[in-house]
What we know:
By secondary structure, the protein is an alpha/beta fold. 43% of the residues lie in helices and 16% in strands.
Amino acid sequence: xxxEIVDGKKIAEKIRKNVAFEIQKLKLKYNIExxxxxxxxxxxxxxNIYLKLRDTAxxxxxxxxxxxxxPESVSEEEIINLISRxxxxxxxxxxxxxxxxxxxxxxxxxxxxLNPKKxxxxxxxxxxxxxxxxxxxxxxCTPLAILKILEEEKIRLQGKDVVIINHSNIVGKPLxxxxxxxxxxxxxxxxxxxxxxxxxxxxxxxxxxxGIPKLINKxxxxxxxxVIDVGIIKTSDGVTGDVDFxxxxxxxGKITPVPGGVGPVTVACSLVNMAKTFRNCMEK
Length: 284
Ligand SMILES: NC(=O)c1ccc[n+]([C@@H]2O[C@H](COP(=O)([O-])OP(=O)(O)OC[C@H]3O[C@@H](n4cnc5c(N)ncnc54)[C@H](OP(=O)(O)O)[C@@H]3O)[C@@H](O)[C@H]2O)c1
């Protein structure tokens, strides 16, 4: 039997409706427009596409996005000064740094400068720490999107065997914490994992975010598993994910497609976090 294909766009729309309601409530209560500011450094074409999508999503929920564009050559000191000013500015209710950033800049230094109250992506040490200890507050957008998809699909996580392919700070590490907080058993794999299949074949839920096209095929999948494909890779045939969709769909129970799966839900979860930082700034 063929796997059920999870409709990320539909889930994203539901999330957006809730965020629009929340933003409207806050605007009426405080009589103020939210100001969410993105710092974009250089001219990365993939960032430009993502930003355009996110800006459109912002408009749909009543947030006027503001982007500050800096040249590739900008110094670390200049950006740190800018972030510090935005941190102090009472008219700014959320800050995002658009990654990737040029190599001469330290992402740790920039993230550490952000005021955790305005940290839309949940990447500051304080917000990360809260996620790890189970006091989830502002959770990074992609892990939050994966959780929302599983919630929408009514998957009970307690006792499930989960395998994550990715150990980055943005995806794998916070996601591991979210699953552990819900009593799943988690294996985290990466490029040094000796035998990837040994892990994936036992997964009730498999999350792949390697950025390698067709890394995962039917040989890696336990029958009836829930397969969540986070990869977004541009190829000459268009955008694809990590998973060989055609082979895996005949064995998995549910699968998220690329495009139209995790991507739109991640954008919607960014709006969820914007509403949170807006509320943070207004409620003190
Ligand atoms: N859908 C979304 O919203 C969304 C959001 C974020 C990212 N993405 C996509 O997800 C992918 C990963 O993004 P990222 O920023 O997390 O990239 P990243 O930092 O490069 O992470 C890739 C991860 O996959 C691991 N990996 C690479 N090749 C592997 C292999 N052959 N076997 C096992 N593990 C392997 C890497 O391990 P090592 O660190 O040991 O090399 C690393 O942990 C990209 O395609 C990106 O476009 C999608």
